[in-house]
Write a structure and sequence with these properties.
The protein has about 350 residues and is α/β, with parallel strands linked by helices. It has one domain (about 35-50, about 70-355). It contains 11 helices and 11 strands. The protein has helices at about 5-25, 35-50, 85-95, 135-150, 170-180, 210-215, 245-250, 255-260, 275-285, 315-325, 345-355, and strands at about 60-65, 65, 75-80, 100-105, 155-165, 165-170, 200-205, 240-245, 290, 295, 335. α2 packs parallel to α4 (about 135-150), α3 runs parallel beside α11 and α4 (about 135-150) crosses α7 (about 245-250). The radius of gyration is 23 Å and the shape is globular. The N and C termini lie far apart (about 85 Å). The chain binds 2-acetamido-2-deoxy-beta-D-glucopyranose (NAG) (2 copies). It comes from Actinidia chinensis var. chinensis (Chinese soft-hair kiwi). It is found in: Membrane. It is a single-pass type II membrane protein. InterPro entries: BC10-like (IPR044174), Glyco_trans_14 (IPR003406).
């Protein structure tokens, strides 16, 4: 009745959906994916955050002349999968500036990260999920941090992502002033240098890097089309400081996320969080971003996608001074990565060097 090749190809065709359905249960995926339930949970959170009040209700009249003018705050978003080794250093950094910042922590739910009492991190842990490199989970963790901070305090005006390996390179006052001081009115000769609108997001946005094509095709050849043509695909550090406007833009995005949430087929070229944020912001508001990051990192002799990790003998006043200096007119505010045992030598330098500007 039917020819054998027909039956064969029909059987093959029939087996495809079965393979897709059961395949993932038989062969566990190599890297963490985001379940539908988690995806819907995130969507609900982002929706709530997107309609959060942009301005605080002024409730504290101070004099007949008017009301207090509450100052904008920096939301520090800690993304971690270990204990926060440098808590005492951050404690010292934040000390005395309680009205000017908030802290939020996303600690990988698969690890037992202690919520130590008595420091700035206590009670600041948001609902977290598992995170893993080479998967979109680091993007969604950063987006949940942004959403939590947007919802929590309408005064949060800058949203700075840091990790447990990051340290501050300057005092809080210096950091605050850097973010909240508008650049001088450009003259004809400085127009090119100060081409960015204020307030500006500090996010690295690079193109033309080697391996960019491999990373673009990591989920399958041209699968990012049509939303993201290759010439719009960007790379940059996932450690950034976004304005409130851009934090909102990020949590409202559905279009690019649909592509970036796809699993990588080539996990050697899979660093979704290094592409999602720079690509999205460079597509939507390139002139609202500096295109550089404020977090210094040392890629010399990097291994397995990890930058150089500083160890105690390397920590010195000289290193701090060196790490601050950029190739441009700005100073780096943060640096990574430092091994946990750098805490003691860093604490020795805290008041003498790091917080002295
Ligand atoms: C960067 O790391 C290399 C070792 O990988 C080290 O020799 C160099 O001094 C470091 N640079 C800075 C500025 O710390
Ligand atoms: C500055 O530029 C030089 C030469 O391009 C480069 O080797 C160095 O890593 C850069 N330093 C920083 C802090 O970006």
């Amino acid at each position: 009745m039917f020819s054998t090749p027909f039956v064969l190809s029909f059987a093959l065709l029939l087996s495809l959906p079965i393979l897709f359905h059961f395949g993932p249960r038989i062969i566990p995926p190599m890297h963490l994916q985001i379940s539908l339930a988690d995806e819907l949970d995130d969507l609900a959170l982002f929706r709530r955050a997107a309609i959060a009040l942009p301005r605080p209700r002024s409730r504290r009249p101070v004099s007949r002349l008017g009301t207090t003018n509450p100052k904008p705050k920096i939301a520090f978003l800690f993304l971690t999968n270990t204990d926060l080794h440098f808590a005492p250093l951050w404690d010292r950094f934040f000390s005395g500036h309680e009205r000017l910042y908030n802290v939020y922590v996303h600690a990988d739910s698969a690890t037992q990260v202690a919520d130590h009492g008595g420091d700035v991190f206590s009670g600041r842990f948001i609902k977290a999920r598992r995170t893993e490199r080479a998967s979109p989970t680091l993007i969604s963790a950063a987006r949940r941090l942004l959403a939590a901070a947007l919802l929590d305090d309408p005064l949060n005006s800058y949203f700075a992502v840091v990790s447990q390996h990051c340290i501050p390179l300057h005092s809080f006052q210096f950091t605050y002033r850097t973010l909240f001081t508008p650049p001088p009115i450009p003259t004809e000769s400085t127009r090119k240098l100060t081409q960015f609108r204020y307030p500006t997001s500090y996010i690295e946005i690079l193109s033309g890097e080697p391996q960019l094509l491999d990373r673009y095709n990591a989920r399958g050849e041209n699968i990012m089309l049509p939303e993201i043509p290759f010439d719009r695909f960007r790379i940059g550090s996932q450690f950034f400081a976004l304005t409130r406007k851009h934090a909102l833009l990020v949590i409202k995005d559905r279009r690019l996320w649909r592509k970036f949430r796809l699993p990588c087929l080539n996990t050697d070229s899979c660093y979704p969080e290094e592409h999602y944020f720079p690509t999205l912001l460079s597509m939507q508001d390139p002139n609202g971003c500096t295109h550089y990051t404020l977090t210094r990192v040392n890629w010399t002799d990097s291994t397995g996608g990890h930058p150089h990790t500083y160890c105690p003998p390397e920590v010195s006043p000289n290193l701090i001074h060196e790490l601050r200096v950029s190739n441009s007119s700005y100073s780096y505010l943060f640096a990574r990565k430092f091994s946990p045992d750098c805490l003691d030598p860093l604490m020795d330098l805290a008041d003498k060097v790091i917080f002295r500007d």
